[in-house]
Write a structure and sequence with these properties.
Distance between the termini: 72 Å
Oligomer: single chain
Structural class: alpha/beta
Strand order of the largest sheet: 12-9-13-14-16-15
Number of helices: 27
Largest sheet: 6 strands, parallel
Length: 701
C-alpha cells in the first residue's frame, strides 16, 4: 500500500566505489581491534548497505527519529558493522566508536541495541527477530496511515514510507522467519523490502551441511515478489551494483506484495584466503590477511581506521540529501496538519504516547458478588476503551474467542479479499489475526511498538508464552510498551490437561528483567491492571488471566476491602485482620487464589487468628514502591506468612521468609474440571488456613 517512485538511474562514481572499499577496510580494522565480530558479512554487504543509506532510503541523519523516515532493520545483527559504518558515514557515530567496537561503554556493542546507539531502529541479536520486527513496522505504517490519512492517494500521504531489512541465512533458517514472512505476504505489505544475503556460509562453514531449500521459491510460495541478483558468476565475482539498483527499483514499484531480493555474494570478498570461509563469518581475519586485502583494495596495509577526506566529504552529503527530503516532507506534513486538526491532535498524542483526557472514565466497573473470569473482564475493558483509544489495536494467535481480545464491532486489519463472515475487515482495521504463530506475533508486536505511534497487544494461552519468549525478552530489553494477554493462567483451565496448564510459566516470566507480569485477582483488579498498563508505556506488560470465573469482591465503603485502584502499587492490603494492630499472619496471593486467601481469613478469624490478605497482582510494581510502603503491607515483625499461587513456589520464598509457608504446585497438572484439580492439588481455603497455622507455630517454636 505504498506508491512506487519514478525509477532513477544509478549515479555510481569512483568516490562511491572508494567509500564502499573503505567500509571493508574499517570493518577489518574494527574486528582486528577486538578479536571477533563477523567482518566477512560486513565486507560483502558493503555495496548494498551503502546503496540503501546513500541512495534509496528517505532518511535524515540530523533527525534519526523523524516520523516520516524509512525504517532500516539489520536483521542480521551479528554483522553490526554493516550498520555502524553507515551511521558513521551519516555522522551519528565517530571514528572512535568504530575503534571501540564491542568494548566496555562503547556505542558499538556486539549486536545493535535500540536506545543505546543513535539510528538503531531495533535490537537484533537473536536471528530472525529483525525480519519479524520489520513486518511489524510495515503493518504499523499501514495502520497509522489508516488512522491519520486514509483517503490520500497512494504515495500522496506524509505517512507513506517503507521498511527495508537485510537478512542472512541465519534469519531465514530460524522458524520465526517463516511465521513473520508468511503473515507479511498474507497482509500484502507492499511497503516492505528485504535483501537476503545468500553467501552460503554460516559459523559451521558451508551451509550445505544443514540447508538445501530454495529460499526464493519458498518466498514465492508465501506470495512475496522475488528477484535474484547474481554476483557469483561462473567466470568471476562481479559486484554488479547496477543490477542491484535495478532490483531495488523494481521492488519499490511492487506495491501489492512484500519484496525479497536474493543477493548472491561471496563472504569476505576480496580477502584472498578468508573469502568464502566460515572463519570469516565470526572471527578476525588476522594481521596478514588484513594487510593483503588492503593491498588489493589500494589501502596502506600499515595504517588502520583511515577515511580519506574526499570520501568523508562525499558520504556526509547524505546529510544534505536527508535535509532536502525532510524539507519536502515537512511541506506535505504541514499541509496535512492544517487540513486535519482533529487527526493532528491524535497524531501528537500518539507520538508522545499520551492518552486522552477522561479516557479512564470509559473503563468499566464490575458488580460485586457476580462471578466473572478475568479474561472476560479484560475483553470488556478492551471493548470499552476501543472508541476512545484508536491507537490501541491487537489480536490473538488464533485464540480470539478464548482470549477475549476482539473489541466489539471493530474491523479486522486484513486485505479486503481475506475478510471473513466472522471477521469483516479492511486494509486499515484494528483487529489483528496472527494465526498460530506465537513467536512471529511477539516479534511483530515489537516492530509495531518500535515504529511508534500505535499501542499493540497480542494474546495466546499463558503456556504458549514459551513459544514467544525470545521476543518478550527483547521487548523487555528495549523497554517497549507491548501488552501481552495470556489467558488460561493455571491448572484452573481444566480439562485440556498438563500440556496446556502452565506451572512454571509465571516464575519464568517474572525472571525476565523489565517484564511486568500482572495477575489480577478479580474483574475490577483486571480493569485496574489495564488502566495502569496503558498509563505506564515504559516496559512490556503481561496480563495473566483466568479461564474460570472468579468472585468479584465487594469493595464498597464499609466493606473492609480496598479499592481496585491499589493495583497500581503491585501489592496491597486487600482486607486486613479483624481488630487493630498487627495481624498474626499475612496471606499473600495472586489471581484466582486470592479468593482462597479471603476464605481462609474467615476460617482463621473464627479461631481467633488475625489474618491479613495481601493481593499481589504485580511483583514488579510492588518492588518499585519505597521500603516504607512495602513494610506497611508486609510488616517485617510479622514472620508468619503464607504465599498462595497455582504455580511453582520459586518466586515466593523471598516474601514468605524463613518461617513462612507456600501453597504452590511443584509438578505438572492433569485433565479434569478445575474444581477437582484445585481440590486434589491442595488449592483450597482449608489448605491455606492450615499453612497459616503451621507458619504461626514455626514462629512460636
Amino acid at each position: 500500500m505504498t506508491a512506487s517512485p519514478a525509477s532513477e538511474p544509478l549515479q555510481w562514481t569512483d568516490l562511491d566505489k572508494r567509500a564502499v572499499d573503505t567500509i571493508r577496510a574499517l570493518a577489518m580494522d574494527a574486528v582486528e581491534n577486538t578479536g571477533n565480530g563477523h567482518p566477512g558479512t560486513a565486507m560483502s554487504l558493503a555495496p548494498a548497505a551503502y546503496m540503501l543509506f546513500q541512495r534509496l532510503m528517505r532518511y535524515d541523519p540530523a533527525d534519526p527519529d523523524w516520523s516520516g523516515r524509512d525504517r532500516f532493520v539489520l536483521s542480521a545483527g551479528h554483522t553490526s558493522l554493516t550498520l555502524y559504518i553507515q551511521l558513521f558515514y551519516a555522522g551519528l557515530l565517530d571514528l572512535d566508536d568504530l575503534k571501540h567496537f564491542r568494548q566496555w561503554g562503547s556505542r558499538t556493542p556486539g549486536h545493535p541495541e535500540h536506545g543505546h546507539t543513535p539510528g538503531v531502529e531495533t535490537t537484533t541479536g537473536p536471528l530472525g527477530q529483525g525480519i519479524g520486527n520489520a513486518v511489524g513496522m510495515a503493518m504499523a505504517a499501514r495502520r497509522e496511515r489508516g488512522l491519520l490519512d486514509p483517503d490520500a492517494a497512494l504515495g500522496g500521504s506524509p505517512f507513506d514510507h517503507r521498511v527495508f531489512t537485510i537478512v542472512s541465512d541465519g534469519d531465514i533458517e530460524e522458524g520465526i522467519s517463516h511465521e513473520a514472512s508468511a503473515l507479511a505476504a498474507h497482509q500484502k505489505l507492499g511497503n516492505l523490502v528485504a535483501l537476503y544475503d545468500d553467501n552460503l556460509i554460516s559459523i559451521e562453514d558451508d551451509t550445505t551441511i544443514a540447508k538445501s531449500e530454495d529460499v526464493g521459491a519458498r518466498y514465492e510460495a508465501y506470495g512475496w515478489h522475488v528477484q535474484t541478483v547474481e554476483w557469483r558468476r561462473s567466470e568471476d565475482y562481479v559486484e554488479d551494483v547496477e543490477a542491484l539498483w535495478s532490483a531495488y527499483q523494481t521492488a519499490l514499484a511492487e506495491t501489492d506484495r512484500p519484496s525479497l531480493i536474493v543477493l548472491k555474494t561471496i563472504i569476505a570478498w576480496p580477502a584472498p584466503n578468508a573469502q568464502n570461509t566460515g572463519k570469516s563469518h565470526g572471527s578476525a581475519l588476522g594481521a596478514d590477511e588484513v594487510a593483503s586485502t588492503k593491498e588489493i583494495l589500494g589501502f596502506d596495509p600499515a595504517k588502520s581506521f583511515v577515511v580519506e577526506e574526499d570520501v568523508l566529504t562525499h558520504v556526509r552529503r547524505l546529510r544534505e540529501r536527508g535535509a532536502a527530503l525532510h524539507h519536502e516532507w515537512d511541506k506535505a506534513y504541514k499541509a496535512w496538519r492544517s487540513a486535519n486538526p482533529e487527526r493532528t491532535q491524535l497524531h501528537d498524542r500518539m507520538r508522545e504516547r499520551r492518552l486522552p483526557d477522561g479516557w479512564t472514565e470509559r473503563i468499566p466497573s464490575f458488580e460485586a458478588g457476580k462471578d466473572v473470569a478475568t479474561r472476560k473482564a479484560s475483553g470488556a475493558v478492551i471493548s470499552a476503551l476501543a472508541p476512545v483509544l484508536p491507537e490501541l489495536w491487537g489480536g490473538s494467535a488464533d485464540l480470539a474467542e478464548s482470549n477475549n481480545t476482539t473489541p466489539d464491532g471493530e474491523p479486522s486489519f486484513v486485505p479486503p479479499e481475506y475478510a471473513t463472515k466472522e471477521f469483516p475487515g479492511d486494509w486499515y482495521g484494528r483487529v489483528l489475526h496472527f494465526g498460530i504463530r506465537e513467536h512471529g506475533m511477539g516479534a511483530i508486536l515489537n516492530g509495531i511498538a518500535l515504529h511508534g505511534g500505535t499501542r499493540p497487544y497480542g494474546a495466546t494461552f499463558l503456556v504458549f508464552s514459551d513459544y514467544m519468549r525470545p521476543s518478550v525478552r527483547l521487548a523487555a530489553l528495549m523497554k517497549l510498551p507491548v501488552i501481552y494477554v495470556w489467558t488460561h493462567d493455571s491448572v484452573g483451565l481444566g480439562e485440556d490437561g498438563p500440556t496446556h496448564q502452565p506451572v512454571e510459566h509465571l516464575a519464568a516470566l517474572r525472571a525476565i528483567p523489565g517484564l511486568e507480569v500482572i495477575r489480577p485477582g478479580d474483574a475490577n483488579e483486571t480493569a485496574a491492571a489495564w488502566q495502569f498498563a496503558l498509563s505506564r508505556p515504559t516496559a512490556p506488560k503481561g496480563l495473566a488471566l483466568t479461564r474460570q470465573n472468579l468472585p468479584t469482591f465487594d469493595r464498597s465503603e464499609g466493606s473492609g476491602f480496598a479499592p481496585a485502584s491499589e493495583v497500581g502499587k503491585g501489592g496491597y492490603v486487600l482486607v486486613d485482620a479483624p481488630g487493630d494492630g498487627l495481624p498474626d499472619v499475612v496471606l499473600i496471593a495472586t489471581g484466582s487464589e486470592v479468593q482462597l486467601a479471603v476464605a481462609a481469613r474467615e476460617q482463621l478469624a473464627a479461631e481467633g487468628i488475625g489474618a491479613r490478605v495481601v493481593s499481589m497482582p504485580c511483583v514488579e510494581w510492588f518492588d518499585d514502591q519505597d521500603q516504607a510502603y512495602r513494610d506497611t503491607v508486609l510488616p517485617p515483625a510479622v514472620r508468619a506468612r503464607v504465599c498462595v499461587e497455582a504455580g511453582i513456589a520459586q518466586p515466593w520464598h523471598r516474601f514468605a521468609g524463613d518461617k513462612g509457608k507456600i501453597v504452590s504446585l511443584e509438578h505438572f497438572g492433569a485433565s479434569a474440571d478445575y474444581k477437582t484439580l484445585f481440590r486434589e492439588f491442595g488449592f483450597t481455603a482449608d489448605s491455606v488456613a492450615q499453612a497459616a497455622r503451621e507458619s504461626l507455630a514455626a514462629t512460636r517454636g
